[in-house]
Amino acid sequence: MKYISILGSTGSIGTQTLDVVREHDDELKVCAITGNNNIELLREQIIEFSPMLCCVMNEEKASALKNILPSNVKTEIMSGMDGLIAAAEYEKSEIIVTAVSGMIGLKPTVAAIKKGKTIALANKETLVTGGDYIMNLARQYHAPILPVDSEHSAIFQSLMANDKKSINKIVLTASGGPFRGKNTDFLKNVKVEDALKHPNWSMGKKITIDSATLMNKGLEVIEAKFLFDVEPEQIEVVVHPQSIIHSGVEFCDHSTIAQLGLPDMRVPIQFALFYPKRLNNSYKSLSLSEIGNLTFEKPDMEVFKCLRLAFDSLREGGTMPAVLNASNEVCVSLFLDKKISFLEIGDLNEKIMNMHKKEKIESIETILSAEEWTKRTINSLLKN
Length: 384
Ligand SMILES: NC(=O)C1=CN([C@@H]2O[C@H](COP(=O)(O)OP(=O)(O)OC[C@H]3O[C@@H](n4cnc5c(N)ncnc54)[C@H](OP(=O)(O)O)[C@@H]3O)[C@@H](O)[C@H]2O)C=CC1
Ligand SMILES: CC(=O)[C@@H](O)[C@H](O)COP(=O)(O)O
Ligand SMILES: [Mn+2]
Prior knowledge:
Strand content: 15-25%
Pfam family, one: DXP_redisom_C
EC number: 1.1.1.267
Keywords: Isomerase, Isoprene biosynthesis, Magnesium, Manganese, Metal-binding, NADP, Oxidoreductase
Structural class: alpha/beta
Number of strands: 11
Bound molecules: NADPH dihydro-nicotinamide-adenine-dinucleotide phosphate, 1-deoxy-D-xylulose-5-phosphate, manganese (II) ion
Cofactor: Mg(2+); Mn(2+)
Family: Belongs to the DXR family.
């Protein structure tokens, strides 16, 4: 039996992780789950999976959850960051699935690493903001980091039985999002509803908007740099609209190994939970002849400037990727609230990066204060 905690069990990755648990209920036991607002779903999950601990980030919702639970439920209910960290550190849990969205995932992930847990990393913002600091911490505490993000799982799998030192380049695939091939004139007027229509994946709102701006690919470039210890110049982003080749690696002998599959996050989630074992499941098989065509294009980094900004932030280093990420989190939330336009996401991110004086990351506090600076600066920019 493997014991797991799921941070963000009510989200897209969280619910698909629970699907994987249903598929392998004789091998996986859920010890702790967490959510923010969706207490109706947390109630159902508690009744179905009987975790020992459930954290509801939102304090009022935590009290409300207690009131709607059947009286025989023994699950301890906590709230706030203390609760999130308790779920991440839960003694019996060996694997922590980090499936909360945004920088809020940083502190609990650090807590889990310091307890030497295995991290099934979906929350890309942790590595984007923490970079080498997180990777060094994971080495220091012998906490394996197993990627869940489909591209990084594909790269990880392509590297199995190969020497990391012989990587020529990483080929990171991107669907291109709902606005692939569009120009700036078109993008001026796009609506939130259009941006939320991802062609291949059903995901949370934040990452879906990031896919539309190509910021998701930018965040994944940064994530790949730190996970696989390569230079930014060794990462080639290729637009592949079918999302069948999830990414790959070209080695020094010019042989490329890639991982393919239908777009189904349960596959990389299962892989991370059972690594290095591969288990049977009931998911759909890939038929290349049914798919017919796999196509590839270069990304347009002028129109989709967020991808260019991600490469720029990596070359700058230090707190710059954290600042880009924090700025993007604020901008996406403003866009979802219809307070800024689609193109303003990239424009504001660029402005913030130009205003930031990077610092070396010495501790988690450096990252959090860069986040604070970013939020303050965006607020004052918007007021003026
Ligand atoms: N979805 C996907 O296919 C993929 C996602 N990822 C990454 O995985 C992470 C999760 O994405 P996804 O599942 O799509 O996101 P969702 O928005 O679907 O889910 C987010 C989860 O985090 C919880 N949450 C939101 N805000 C807070 C907060 N402030 N404090 C504590 N918990 C919070 C939500 O709780 P509640 O629902 O109760 O409000 C929910 O459980 C992201 O970092 C994303 O980039 C990576 C690859 C693929
Ligand atoms: C499923 C997954 O891993 C997402 O990060 C996905 O990659 C988003 O698709 P884009 O390639 O459009 O960003
Ligand atoms: Mn991805």
